[in-house]
Amino acid sequence: MKQLIRLILFSSILLSLTGCNFSNDFSNEIDEDNPTKTKEDNEIPEIKTYKGEKLDLLVVGDKPTIREQKKISFTTIDVENLAKKSLDRYDAVVIMPEYLSEAAEKRYNKIYKQNKIPFFFVGSRAAHIPFVDNGEVTYETYADRVDESQNYISGLLYKEDIEKGYYAYKYRYQHDGENYVKDNVSSIYSNVFRTIDNIKSNQPLNHLN
Question: pTM, whole model, 2 decimals?
């Protein structure tokens, strides 16, 4: 009988802990700037367009489709010219998917470290990891290892006054309760623009969006 009671108590504790972990993981996916659908919702909340100050961005690749045409100015640049161009007058650099492999080469890592503006990697399946690693591992290898499918954009901002040396950002696809919705990413860009504006204003940084 005592053994049966112990088994029942152990099962109850295990179920309780499992429930807490699920609740914590689920709540961690929800924040003010990047809401996701909860089990009680019937619709994915609409993320507001960016309405802050005008931003001047460099983009490696084709300009993305965004909602804030009057607020955001894109200047295109080849990835190899990042080292030749003064980046100080720009608010951030956006690197599009077809250039991630080249941008992850070790020779570009010092560019991300030396400049005091954020870099955003669109569609990176390896998050920011290949862009801070000084080794010889390729972007493709990291992408196969990490295989991040829930995040659309990852960001990186080096800061000398923090222990790790940089802030890392992740911007998730919205979730409909069953799947990640990947056919509308304009709201993700709106969140990226808000982050850039906060950095310009020297406001506290939220490293995971």
Answer: 0.77
